[in-house]
Amino acid sequence: MKTFAAKIKSELLPKIAARKMFGLIADEMAMVEEEFARQASSNIQVIDYLGEYVRSSGGKRVRPALLILSNYACGGNGSTEGSIRLATVMEMLHTATLVHDDIIDNADMRRGRESVNQKFGNQMAVLMGDWLYMSAFETSLKERSLEILDILTHLTRKMTEGELIQLTVIGNTDITEDAYFDILRRKTAYLFSGCCEIGAILAGAEKEVQAALRDYGMNLGIAFQLADDLLDFTSDEKSLGKAAGADLLEGKLTLPLIVLCRQYPEFKHELKEIIANGTYQNGARAKVMQKLEETRMIEHIRSVALSYSDAARKNLEVLRKTKYSLVLEEIPNFVILRNS
Asked: Does 4-337 carry CATH code 1.10.600.10?
């Protein structure tokens, strides 16, 4: 049981980190929002309406912030047209994956309101996701950089592969930790990595620094997703903006349950029943939570996430200390301790 002081500290740390992160680049993030609104608009009425619905649904905007902060930390100017444009591209790619993921998962909520597929239907949602992908790549071409385009095509392919691989293991209680991390890297971490690497490239950083920022983004992305997986157990629907416990109901076993199944094979039967039913009937979710608490699995997985955030901080040792590199060091606090 957390003490009151510990509870207050755990709630304040991510807020402080987020305030530092976004406060330092508030003007640039406003420019990203304007660029996103411009890129999501169209003279085709239905696309214009869908684009505004998707953009205005919000989100943390962590990915474009990472690109801008990485650019500044490497000696660049994050407010240039190219930096703002590429930061927007990363958010558009992320948004497109969410639109498609919600179709695949048959999700009805995203960020506290109806998902695109729920509100407009799967056909509209598929095409809107495709349109966002194509718009993002069209925008990125304006940089006339084959190096950046290569990173974008690589990470987009990885994200698609991750979704396809995940579909093959839906409902599989024998999924290994290696397979889980492979999917995690493809679906989440490559995009984080690309944001940081492109920020360094736009700053004209040396190859060693580019590689360090690429690795920073990869480690941070892994930590981010591990924390996100824990939120499915520890947070509520209001904070998440979607149904709590949805991952297991969709047949997705995340690391806490994968480790639990490896250590207690008899628990697989209960998980299979939950997946087959598609609901947490007869207190099933409470039973899962009880098992996770008894085995201290939440604390164990959080320690794994912290190890990746520590590795991310170590990647930043190649940078000289500036207000931007120091904020990059703070971001893991936001990633690990956030509640949404």
From this structure: yes
